Amino acid sequence: MSESLWEAGVEEETQPETQEKTSGALTVSVDDFAALEERILRAVNLVKQERQARVAAEANAAQAEARAARAETELHDQAPLMERLQAELKSLKAERDHVKERVDRLLKQLDGLEL
Questions:
Q1: How far from 42 is each of 32, 55, 68, 72, CA to CA, in Å?
Q2: Which sequence spans correspond to the domains of the chain?
Q3: In 71-105, which positions are buried (b, 16+ CB within 10 angstroms) versus exposed (e)?
Q4: pLDDT under 50 in the chain at which residues?
Q5: What is the dihedral of CA 83, 87, 90, 92, to 10 degrees?
Q6: In the prediction, which pLDDT does 46 show?
Q7: Which residues contact 9 (CB under 8 A, 6 or more apart)?
Q8: DSSP secondary structure of 25-82
């Protein structure tokens, strides 16, 4: 079969279907079409809202990651200071205990003098 004969056969086969589909489409009521249109518009709006929410969530996640990275950097930078302050605190506590012992000894000596 040549291409033109084949195309003609295809056209003949599709024409009745097209006519049936067209007449079937005409049986759809205006209310049904309006309801379908409304559902499609709601679906489109829902997809838009979801996309906006996803973009916002991704932006928030990126900001949170950036804040976490900054906090981690600050923590890393503050670690030597924290270690130094802990050592200083330990030293000051030891000094306080030493001074307390000396004061206790002096008070005992004063009590021993019995003025």
A1: 15, 20, 38, 44
A2: 3-113
A3: eeeeeeeeeeeeeeeeeeeeeeeeeeeeeeeeeee
A4: 1, 5-6, 8, 10, 12-22
A5: -120
A6: 97
A7: 1
A8: HHTS-HHHHHHHHHHHHHHHHHHHHHHHHHHHHHHHHHHHHHHHHHHHHHHHHHHHHH
